Amino acid sequence: xxxxxxxxxxxxxxxxxxxxxxxxxxxxxxxxxxxxxxxxxxxxxxxxxxxxxxxxxxxxxxxxxxxxxxxxxxxxxxxxxxxxxxxxxxxxxxxxxxxxxxxxxxxxxxxxxxxxxxxxxxxxxxxxxxxxxxxxxxxxxxxxxxxxxxxxx
Amino acid sequence: xxxxxxxxxxxxxxxxxxxxxxxxxxxxxxxxxxxxxxxxxxxxxxxxxxxxxxxxxxxxxxxxxxxxxxxxxxxxxxxxxxxxxxxxxxxxxxxxxxxxxxxxxxxxxxxxxxxxxxxxxxxxxxxxxxxxxxxxxxxxxxxxxxxxxxxxxxxxxxxxxxxxxxxxxxxxxxxxxxxxxxxxxxxxxxxxxxxxxxxxxxxxxxxxxxxxxxxxxxxxxxxxxxxxxxxxxxxxxxxxxxxxxxxxxxxxxxxxxxxxxxxxxxxxxxxxxxxxxxxxxxxxxxxxxxxxxxxxxxxxxxxxxxxxxxxxxxxxxxxxxxxxxxxxxxxxxxxxxxxxxxxxxxxxxxxxxxxxxxxxxxxxxxxxxxxxxxxxxxxxxxxxxxxxxxxxxxxxxxxxxxxxxxxxxxxx
Lengths: 153, 412
Fold this sequence. Notes:
The complex is a heterodimer.
Chain A: H1 4-9, H2 24-32, H3 42-46, H4 51-65, E1 72-74, H5 84-88, H6 90-95, E2 113-116, E3 119-122, H7 140-143, E4 150-152
Antiparallel strand pairs in A: 1-4, 2-3
Chain B: E1 15-19, E2 22-27, H1 31-38, E3 48-49, E4 52-53, H2 56-69, E5 73-77, H3 83-96, E6 99-102, H4 106-117, H5 125-131, E7 134-138, H6 142-145, H7 149-154, H8 165-168, E8 171-176, H9 181-185, E9 190-192, H10 198-209, H11 219-231, E10 234-239, H12 241-246, H13 251-264, E11 266-269, H14 278-289, E12 295-296, E13 303-304, H15 310-316, E14 319-323, H16 327-330, H17 333-339, E15 346-350, H18 355-359, E16 362-365, E17 375-378, E18 384-387, H19 401-411
Parallel strand pairs in B: 5-6, 5-14, 7-8, 7-10, 8-9, 10-11, 14-15, 15-16
Antiparallel strand pairs in B: 1-2, 3-4, 3-16, 6-12, 12-13, 17-18
Helix pairs in contact in B: 2-19, 3-14, 3-19, 10-11, 10-13, 15-17
C-alpha cells in the first residue's frame, strides 16, 4: 500500500492546477482516494521529461485498479480458505446469525464474503460497512486474516 | 451437505455441485479440503503387481498369498480410514497374528492415552465454541494444519456463553518457536521460545501460577500470562506436534500443569491429530486390544512394548500391508527404509499414487473415504460423525477399504 507522499514524489510538483486541484499534494491524495485518475495530470501525460515518472506512477497505481469501491482486494494465491473473514464480517453475521455467526459456511446470497473452491470471494460489496455516505472504518476481515490475502488499499 | 475428510475437523457444511459424476464447484471448503476434493481425479492408482497393471482380483489374490506366507506381518497406516474399515483391519491382524501400528509419533499416543484415561480433562469442540474464553495453541498452527479451526470453534465464532466472541470475550494465546500464521492473529499473546524449550516454559507457567518469579521468558509478560490464566473461566489448550515432541517422556510435567490450572479454574486439553480418523483408530484399538497403538496380536494376549512400536516392528517384520496412510513419506528415513527391505513384500492399498504405492510390490486401488465411500469417523475431539458417500467411484469396481479388507479376510 502506497502513501500520498510516495505518489507526490512521482508527480511534476509544479502546482500548475491543470487537474483542477490547487496543489500536486492534493492530487496525490485524490489519486489515493480514487477520486482522481493518473490521466488527469496533463503535464505528466503530455511532457516527455516526465515519462519515467509516469511509468512508475502507473506501476504503483496498478494494484488499486482491481480494488473494489470499498478498497477491498483479495489475493487468492495467499488465501488459506480458513473462513476467519467470513465469520468475522459483521454483515455476514447479521445476515446469517445461525450459520456465519456460529462458524459455519453461509447458505444464502446476502453475504459479502464466502469461500468458494478453497479461496475467499466477495460480492454484494454495497452492503459492506466501509461503503457509502455513512461509512465506518470496519476492518474485521483484514484484521482476522492469517496470510494478508485480503486487504484494503 | 457433504463432508470433508481432509483433516480431523471433519467439516460437514460443504456444498458440492456435481455434474456427470464429477465435483465441479465447492463452497465452504478450506484450501486443504479443496485440495483433498481435487484429488478425486488426480493420480488414482490402478491394481498392480511388480509395477505392471493387472486385474483387481489378481492383485487381491497376490496380496492374500503374501500375507498367508508371512510369519510376522506388519499392518500399518489406518489413520485415514473409516472406523468400520479400521475394525476390519484389527480382525485381519488377529487372524494373521500380525503387528498393527499407525504412523503417528509416540508422543501423541502418550497424550491421547492420558486423555482417554481421564488423567487429563478434555471437552468437545462444540464446548470450545460455546464456553471457551481462552484458547492456547501450544506448538500447533491450526491456520496451516486445520484451517477452519479458529473460524469454526476456537476464536472467531459466537457461542452460547460467548456471544461477543473474539472482539470482547475470547483471547487466543500462541506458544511457538516462530511467529506462525496463527501467532500473527494472537497479537500481544504470542510467546516465543527456543526449540525444545517447552518443558522450561511449562515450569515457568507453573511458577507464575504459584506467585513465584519465572525462570525463563520476559518476566513481565509471563506474569501477565499468569493473570490471564487465572482470570479465565473456561480455558482450552491445543497441544500440537511441536510441544508433544519436545515433551516426549516429560508428559507428567504437562499433566501437572493442567492439574494445577484446574485447581484455579476450568482448563481442558484437546489434541490436534492431523489425519481424519486417528482418534477413531486409537479408540477402537483401546476397546479391542487394551492398548492404543503398536500391538502384536500374535499370541493369545495382545503384546505391547518397544518391540511392537513401528520403528522396531518395521525392522523385524517379513511382510507389510500399508493401508489408509502413506508410511514411506511420513516416517523418518530409517524406519521407512526398513519397510522397503529387499525380501519384505509391501502391499499398498491406497486411492492415490504415493511414495508407498510406488515402492510397493502389490497395489490395490481403493475408494476415497468420505467422498466415494461412506462410514463413520471420530473428529479430533472424539465426536462421532457418520457420512454417506458423495459420488459413486469413477470406476465401477473400485472397492472401499472395508470391502478390500473383508475380501482378504475371506480368502485367508
